[in-house]
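Protocol step 4 of 6: structure prediction from sequence.
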Amino acid sequence: MDNIKQVAVAGLGTVGGEVVECLLKNAGGLAGRSGVQLNLTAVADPDPPPRFDDGKLKKVDRYDDVLELLDNENPDVFVELIGGVGVARQAIEKALKSGLDVVTANKELLAKNGEQIFEVARNNGGRIRFEASVGGSIPVVRTIRESFVSAELTEIYGIINGTANYVLSRMESDNQKFSEALKLAKDRGYAEADPSYDIEGDDSAHKLAIIAALAFGGRVPLENIYCEGITGISPEIIEDARRLGYRIKLLGIAKKVNGGLDIRVHPTMIPRASALAAVCNEYNAVYLQGEPVGSSMLYGKGAGGPATSSAVLADVIDLAAGRKEVEAPVYFSDTPLAPVAVEEVKTRYYIRLSAVDKPGVLARVTRILGHWEISIETVIQHGRSGEEDEEVPVILTTHKAREGAMQAAVEEITELNVIGSRPEVIRIEEGFEGE
């Protein structure tokens, strides 16, 4: 085969290891399906995993330092799977300045420094692909950039972190506490030893910044994304959601609203009958709404070595084969999309109170909500055992209200001497296809 392309890979962790294994074992199969022969010529990793101790890399140039690799090698495609924003950024920019094509799965780097990275690419004739950065095996980037290039997208809802989704799924299906479900996620390999990046919402925010920049044609600074994790979700809240006809997901949301961008990541109650609610365990999904395409949902495994490596290799093949791509009108532009202040966002709410069960308590709560123009839709009060001044759960759902008003009301309710602790509040989103 005349069409032979040289590939170098930096980072031999979970994803990088899978990419290298596939290039070593299945280069012939890839060539048969793609028409391009990929030849792994070099790898960089200061501490290669034990899976490569058996001599698999004996015909491949090996480096501890990725920058040294780039000084000595001249691959057609450079694959960065180191992660982080330090050495990874140096390596990508060095490769692009040398005119190399680059593939990365580094969502943190693209979310924080995407505009600078793409400026380097434009100025030096290099190309960069990053499908694996936002959805694992789900072709989110390709769909937005190519299939929906003529569409005017208006709304995005994404379950885009497999760890958080697995934890919430196990809490619901197995009636587990958060700590129990997280331990199971670690045991199954779906959570890192330090899972804070996933369960606090940071990973989802990075991915959402990239997706929204592509979909809406402008830069999305991370500081404009409201971010809240799932550590406060209890089995009681999960059960309340079920009784109300909802399921809780860590949702990334981006909507065009009155010329601005409402963009946030937080636990969200969504209708159990919706297509998004059926996305469980380590699976991810991205729901897109726009004109004239209507609604579409992309679904698949969003994390893990095999799923993510598949997206990496697809990008490598496209670059190696010289396939042209459709560029979005504005692509990681220097112009930021104007944010809608989170205090001005309007949505429905679930509120869980621990209140002393005696006459007038609920009236005091509703008076505060009314003062802040928050209208109650449903009220559920659990029974008591008969003890005087016992605290009982009170569940409220509201009609749409302003976020700033809700936060102010919660502060006032917390100060009431008949309320046991700060109310727990979860936002409600509806209107998904299949509801």
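Step 5 (inspection) to follow. The chain has 15 helices and 17 strands.
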